[in-house]
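Objective 1.3, modelling of assemblies. Example input:
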Amino acid sequence: MSTQKIPQATAKRLPIYYRYLKILNDAGKERVSSTELSDAVKVDSATIRRDFSYFGALGKRGYGYDVENLMKFFSKTLNQDHLTSVALIGVGNLGHALLNYNFHQNNNTRISAAFDVKEEIVGTIYSGIPVYQMDEMMEQIPLQQIEIAILTVPAQVAQDTVNKLVEAGVKGIMNFTPVRITVPKNVRVQNVDLTNELQTLIYFLDNYAGEEVSEEE
Amino acid sequence: MSTQKIPQATAKRLPIYYRYLKILNDAGKERVSSTELSDAVKVDSATIRRDFSYFGALGKRGYGYDVENLMKFFSKTLNQDHLTSVALIGVGNLGHALLNYNFHQNNNTRISAAFDVKEEIVGTIYSGIPVYQMDEMMEQIPLQQIEIAILTVPAQVAQDTVNKLVEAGVKGIMNFTPVRITVPKNVRVQNVDLTNELQTLIYFLDNYAGEEVSEEE
DNA sequence: TTAATGCTGTGAACATAAGCACAAGATTTG
DNA sequence: CAAATCTTGTGCTTATGTTCACAGCATTAA
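Predicted structure (C-alpha cells):
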C-alpha cells in the first residue's frame, strides 16, 4: 500500500508523537530535536529518529524537526484529516463512560452509533448518540459507513456479537472484553483488557520490584 | 527475587492463561493440552509451552497439563491468594465507570479508596467506595496499605498527582491519562491510552489492510 | 568566510520474542 | 505386554525491536 513496512512497534508510537507535536505547535514552538521529544514521550531518542526515518527524511541535520510540518505530516499519516465514525456495542457501565469520553478532542473520531439489548434505552439518545437495537447493526453499520467498533458487551456474548459485527462489515474492533475473540484475518482486533492490565501490574510489582521503568498498552 | 527472569512478554500473558484455566476448571475439565489452550487464548502452542516452562515442568508428556493444578499454580503466581487494595484517583467520567467495573470478579483486587477534588462528592460513598479529598492521599494510602493507583485525572494535573502518589508510597500506576508521566525507577507504570489505542487501530486499518491477525494492550 | 557546533539518519551490535521441529517420555490401545 | 499415539520441553532459527555510535551535513557563531 501507501507507506509500506512500518514496524508495528513504530505504528503504536505514532499517536504519542502526534499528540505531543500538537501540544508543541499550540505552544508556538517551531523546532524540536529528537532529544527533547524523547524527554516528553519517554522513548529513546534513537528510537524516535529511527521511527521517523521510516517515513523519509523529515528532519534537518544540525537543526532538528520543524514542529508544524511534522505535526501536519503525522496528522495526515494518522488520518486525522477526515472524521472516523465508530460504533459502540454495549452501553453498560464502561460503555456509557466511553460515550462521554472525549475521543473527539484530540482525535478526529466520533462514536456515531451505540447498540444495546436493553429495551429501556434503545431508541433514546445518550450523550448525543442514538442507541439502536442489536439487530439494527446489520443495517446501521453499512449505512453510517462505520468500520470500527468498540466492544463492551458481557463476555458470554462477545464472540456472537463479533460475528455479527464482522458480517455487518466492521474491519477493526477495540475489544474491552476479556475474551480472545476469533475474527477473519482481514479484521483487526485491539485488545484492551483492564483486569489483565491490573493483574500484570501487580505481578510486576511483586516480582520485578525496582528494576526498570515501563511501558505499554 | 522468587521466580527470576520471566520475560515481560510472558508475564503479560499470564493473566490470560489464568482466566481461561479458571473457566476450564469451573467447567470440570481435568486436563488440557497446549494446543487446546492455544485455540482459546490465541497464542501459539509453542509459545504457551515455552511460557509455562519458565516456571518449571508443569505438564506431563503425552498427557498435557492438569487444569486444577495449573490454575492453582498461576493463582499463587499472580498473587490471587491475597486481596490487593487499589486507589482510584479522579472520579470523573471514566473513573466512575471503573468504580463500578468488576475488577473483583475474576481478580482478587478491590478499589478501596477514591480521591477527587470535587467538593460535592468528597465525603460521600460511591458504589460502596469512600471518596476522599486529594490531600488525604498522604494519609490514607499508607494507612490502607495501598500500593497501586488507577489514574484518571485530567492531563494537566497528571504529573503533579503522580508526584504526590509516589510520595505517598504508591509503587504501581495504571495511567489512563495520555501524558507520559515521569516516575522514580522503582515505580511501575502501565499506560492505558484509549485515544492512542483507537488511533493505532485506525492507522492499521488504513495501512495494513488485510494482513494479519493482531494483538495487544 | 571559516571554524565550531548541533542533530539527523543509519550501519551494526545487541536484546527480546516467536515459532519450527523433534527427541524423550508418558499414556493409551489392542 | 508391546505397539501406537500423544504431548511436553527445548535447541535452534528466524523475526522483530532497541540502542550505540558516528559520518555527514546544516546551522550558527566568530
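The beta strands of chain B are 31-32, 65-66, 84-89, 109-116, 125-126, 129-133, 148-151, 172-175, 188-191.
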